[in-house]
Amino acid sequence: MNKTTFNLVAISIFLMTFSILLGPLIDLSPTVPAIATFAILGIATFDSWSLEGRGGTLFLDLIGGFSPEYRERILHHEAGHFLVAHVLGVPVTGYTLSAWEAFKQKQKGLAGVTFDDVELLSQLEKGAITTRILERYYTIWMAGIAAEKLVYEDASGGADDKNKLKGVLKSLGCSDSFCNQKQRFSVLQAKTLLENNWSAYQTLVDTMRKRATVKECKDILIRQGVKSEK
Questions:
Q1: I need a labelling partner for 174 at 20 to 30 A (CA). Which of 26, 100, 108, 214 fits?
Q2: Angle between helices 131-152 and 176-196 (to 10 degrees)
Q3: Who's near 190: CB < 8 A, 6+ residues apart?
C-alpha cells in the first residue's frame, strides 16, 4: 500500500470514528457513515491495484488545491528545481504544478520538473558514474526544499526528492548519517544558487504561474542573466 492510499484509509477510519461519536447528537443514521467508509475503502483498493496510487493522489491534491498557499508552495518548490537545474546545466524538458497535470502527462506524483537525464543514465549503464554528476543531481533534487525554506522558512514538500537522494546514496553503500549530512549540504548548495539568482527566480515563479512553456521559462532566465554550466 502506498502512502497516498494509506492516507485515504486513514481518512475513512477518522470519518467512521467521528460519525460514531457525534452521530447520536445530530441524529445521524449509522448507515450513512458506514456506506461512506466502505465507498472510500473501495476506492482506495481500486486505486492501489488499478491506478498505482494516482487516483488517491489526485483526490488529495484536489482537496489541497482549494488552498492558495498550497498551490503557491508547489509553484515555488518546482521553480526551485527548474532554476537550479538550469544553472547546473541539466536541461529541463517539462514541468507540472498539480497532480492532474502530472496525470495527463502520464507521470506519477503531485507535480514535478522533468529533466534530460541522458548523461546520468548513460553513466549508470556503464557503472561508472562520476561524483560531478551525482553532486549536480543531489543539488537539483534538494532545490525544491531549499526554495520553500527561503520563501516560507520551512518545507512541507520534498519527501520524494529526499528518497531519490537517499536511494542513490544507499546503493553506493552510504550510511544513514552520511545521507542526512549530504541532504543538508545539498540544500545549502541549492539555497546559495537560488539566493545568487533571486530576482530571476521570482520572475521564473511568475512565469510558471502563467503556465508558460519550458522554452519561455528558459528564455526568461537567459534574459535575466542566469548562466548555465556546460
A1: 108
A2: 70
A3: 80, 84, 139, 140, 142, 143, 145, 146, 147
Size (the chain), residues: 230
Radius of gyration of the chain (CA): 21
- Cell digits for 113? 520538473
Q: pLDDT by residue (tens digit) across 67-76?
A: 788 889 999 9
Separation CA 81–CA 175 (nearest Å): 26
Are residues 96 and 102 in contact, defined by beta-carbon separation less than 8 angstroms? Answer: yes
DSSP state for residue 213 in the 8-state scheme: -
Q: String of b and e for 194-205 (b: at least 16 CB within 10 Å)?
A: beebeebbebbb
The DSSP bridge pattern shows strands 112-115 and 92-96 to be antiparallel
**Each residue's pLDDT tens digit, 19-42:** 555 555 555 555 655 555 555 555
Beta-carbon contacts of residue 120 (< 8 Å; ≥ 6 apart) = 129, 133, 137
